[in-house]
Each structure stands twice: as C-alpha cells, then as structure tokens.
Amino acid sequence: MSQTFEFYDARAKEAAADAEKAQLENVRDRHLRAEKTWRGLAEQARRVATDRAKAERERADRRAAEAALAEEAKEAVTS
C-alpha cells in the first residue's frame, strides 16, 4: 500500500509539534529525527507521484501517435 505525500507530511507536522512540546532533550531529538524521516518520505512520495504522472502522459502520447500512424496506414491501403 503506497502512502501519499499528504499522509507523510501530516506525520512530519505531528512530529514537529511533539518536538515543540517535549520537555526532555532526548525526547525532542527523537521527534526531530522522526520529523526529518517523515519529510524525506513525503518528498519521495511527491517525486514518485510526479514521475508516475509524467510516465502516464508519455504513454498516452505514444499511444496517440501510434493510433495516428495506424490510421494513416489504413487510409493509405484503402486509397
């Protein structure tokens, strides 16, 4: 199951808020490390979504070009 940027971003914000509230330094550090990890995952999810959208556009363009070529070949044969 893949998570979205929004999911990871929300977890990062929660970790940052927990770090702000932490009274103990080691607890604050743990939350800050968690925030850093969640932010990294959020950015990775954003890149994956962007790359998938780009790949889908490229596939759609390629399918459209192939369909146009097939139509041209069909018209050439019937002419």
Helix-strand category: mainly alpha
Could you give the count of β-strands? 0
Q: Number of domains in the coordinates?
A: 1
Poorly predicted tracts of residues: none
Q: What oligomeric arrangement do these chains adopt? A: single chain
* Count of runs of 4 or more consecutive helical residues: 2
Tell me the helix content: over 70%
Mean pLDDT: 94
What is the string of helix and strand elements? HH
Largest sheet: none
Task: Give the overall form.
Answer: rod-shaped
Task: Based on the model shown, name its key terms.
mainly alpha; 79 residues
Question: Could you explain how this protein is built, in words?
Answer:
The protein is built from 2 helices and no strands. With 79 residues, the chain is mainly α. The chain has one domain. Helix 1 packs antiparallel against helix 2. The longest helix is centred in the middle third of the chain and has 54 residues. The model has no long low-confidence stretch (mean pLDDT 94).
Question: What's the quick description here?
Answer:
This protein is an all-alpha fold and 79 residues long. It has one domain. Helices cover 90% and strands 0% of the residues.
Secondary-structure blueprint:
Elements: H1 5-21, H2 25-78
Helix pairs in contact: 1-2
